Amino acid sequence: MIRLVFLMRRKPELSLEEFQRYWRDRHAPLVASFATRLKLLRYVQVHTLADVQLEGPRGEMEPPYDGVAELWWQNEESVGDDAEAMRALLEDEREFIDLPQSPLWFSYEYPQVNPSPENIVAHERNSIVKLYYPLRPPAHLKVDDAQLYWRTQHGPLVRSHAEASGLLRYMQVHRFDSRLEARLREARGTVVEPYMGHAEAWFDREVLRDGGPEAETALRAAVEDEVKFIDFRRSCIWLGKEHVIVSRL
Length: 249
Fold this sequence. Notes:
This protein has 249 residues and is of the alpha+beta class.
């Protein structure tokens, strides 16, 4: 299974509310109408929450994106190459997305804390929120080495504090080099370099607001380890809500 991650910044003339409304009410049905032709298995919109700011111990970071489009396929070979559908989607994206400033890439998922069944979703009307954390490594560290440390060292550390931190689910999503990425970036005029992947975690909103001393200890341990493989100033973090548009999994 592969996932396309598309971090979106809105066009400057749109408010966050206008951007998210167009994306949900106009663009989502268009994507859904092409799902079969594109062999799409799942499509989720993650809408950034404007009323919650994650101020913490990581210092200055990049500003949050306005939303994330997530699209799943079985593998690269199964990604539908329907020229008419791709053209229609791109034309509509130009109506509300600042495409040059909106990076995208293909990725593999590495579940770390995963309930069974996998039915945790940060729906608009429940108290669960999804944390989004796109990462870039420090200049002295190669991406492959940073991803290896993230997966084999940092993942177990976060898992060891999962209960104390109130983690409902935690996934590492690692970028991989794909022949399709360059084509999508060129079509959109993307200038922002991709991240090495992102961490995503689901929490109850109340736990994030006041998790107590054990949660503070878990956060401190995670951040102390993140310094070893993350450049905070070139990474970003925020909370969002999920809108599941297509699901065939």
